[in-house]
Amino acid sequence: MSSITEMPELVMEKIIEFSDFKAVLTLRQVCRDFRNFIDDLNDSKLPDSKFTKIQILSEKKDNKIILDFMNSDDSSHRLEYSEIGNSRSFNRKTTLLGNADIVDVAIPDLELILKFQKSTLEFLYFTFDDFQLQNDSSLHVLPIKLSNMLNVSGRKIKTRYFNIKTSDNSQIMSVLPIAEPETLQVLNLLSIDDDEQRSNLHSSYDDGVREIELDEIVKTEQWKNAERMNCYLRVLNLKVEYVSHFPRLFMKIPSITARDLDFLKTTYISSPQFKYAFFELIDFNEHDDISNLWGPAFDSGYSKHFWYFRRKNAEEKILRVEFSLYYRTFSYRTSELEDVLPGAVVQDYNEG
């Protein structure tokens, strides 16, 4: 009797093509011939795993790498790689890795699974813990090796939301180019200790928020193509020209000048796509300058000051600018004319 592995390649390819993702992974474990045949197949001949979320993270507490793959029904598959005991766990089965480095084991596993992901992800998460001071751990090289693997394969990951939580700015540039620019809609840059910061939002403006410079990031196609940007790292030396194209924006910055505020106002009143922009500051010292540019603000009596501007070619839409003295925030928002506070003045549209 002939072995199934002796079937014509075309027949084998059809079997793979009409099998689901789990079945192909199971078939790959049957024998070396199946594994080699599947690994050598063109990605287009493999079934779609149809994941909606992928999370890649390193944990300093337990010296682990975790790969999570989630489906639309919220079912998930998790691979854990632990430096403690040097092991890999999947479906409650643990395999000892001997002398192998867990990073060097996790990267090929991820590369294999990504071969099956054809549809666009809703969310792609990266969390890279701070391993810089741990000389006995190799996990700090995970972003670099991940980037190298995808660069060699030429693979881009199609995702709508791209999220990275890190303590090291350089790690952002390691993985941001992984996202396919054409499908990317939302870019979230988070601090590794951001959960604690957001739970105490506005409680302190000297809260040790991690800092970032955007000089390299703004050159990427991912930055240029995203429709929404949320940055919970504090941006240093911000050039507002880098962020004025985002229809939706949240950003932490040390301060902002009246000139930059006016540039953003002029840009937003002319942009039909603009929805909102929110800037959280440490301080703002140009009250007189912005009043000279825009005129006196409308004081709501709650430490909030408002300006209203008509937008280009929009009779019922206005731009509302709000400065909160208490929270030290400037926000811009497209609003309805009917939402203007009683007694406030709406300034006519002026391109200059």
Automatic annotation (TrEMBL):
Q: This protein's superkingdom? A: Eukaryota
Entries under Pfam families matching the protein = F-box, FTH
Q: Which residues form the F-box domain?
A: 1-54
The residues forming a coiled coil are none
Which GO biological process entries does UniProt record here? innate immune response
- State what protein this is by name: F-box domain-containing protein
Source organism (scientific name): Caenorhabditis nigoni
Taxonomic lineage of the native organism: Eukaryota, Metazoa, Ecdysozoa, Nematoda, Chromadorea
Q: Which gene encodes it?
A: Cnig_chr_V.g21226
